[in-house]
Amino acid sequence: MALWRAYQRALAAHPWKVQVLTAGSLMGLGDIISQQLVERRGLQEHQRGRTLTMVSLGCGFVDYPDALITSYYLWPAVQLANFYLVPLHYRLAVVQCVAVIWNSYLSWKAHRL
């Protein structure tokens, strides 16, 4: 909880910087999950450059046509549940958790052979 409070304080003090770093971190985490759990590359075969690319893409938005269609199904449902069922102070955490899964999907989709 202390880490969460520190994050909230940083977000209040520097919203733009913290959101950019959060997006980059979540994109990187999504790529790590994709490489390790979906593609089962192992640590020796992990493509670090690919992870760094995904982290740097976290500063902007890059999508793929069929992923965009999937996005139209996923995010409205997530936000609908988030706004109606989740207390205000937990909404950001819920979206960030779903974003990690979404970023894993995007990484897999972008880098499959």
UniProtKB/TrEMBL annotation:
Entry protein name: Mitochondrial inner membrane protein Mpv17
Protein topology in the membrane: Multi-pass membrane protein
GO cellular component: membrane
Transmembrane segments: none
Coiled coil listed as a keyword: no
Localization annotation: Membrane
Similarity comment text for this entry: Belongs to the peroxisomal membrane protein PXMP2/4 family.
Keyword terms: Membrane, Transmembrane, Transmembrane helix
InterPro entries, per the entry: Mpv17_PMP22
Lineage: Eukaryota, Metazoa, Chordata, Craniata, Vertebrata
PANTHER family reported in the protein's UniProt record: PEROXISOMAL MEMBRANE PROTEIN 2, PXMP2 MPV17 (PTHR11266), PROTEIN MPV17 (PTHR11266:SF17)
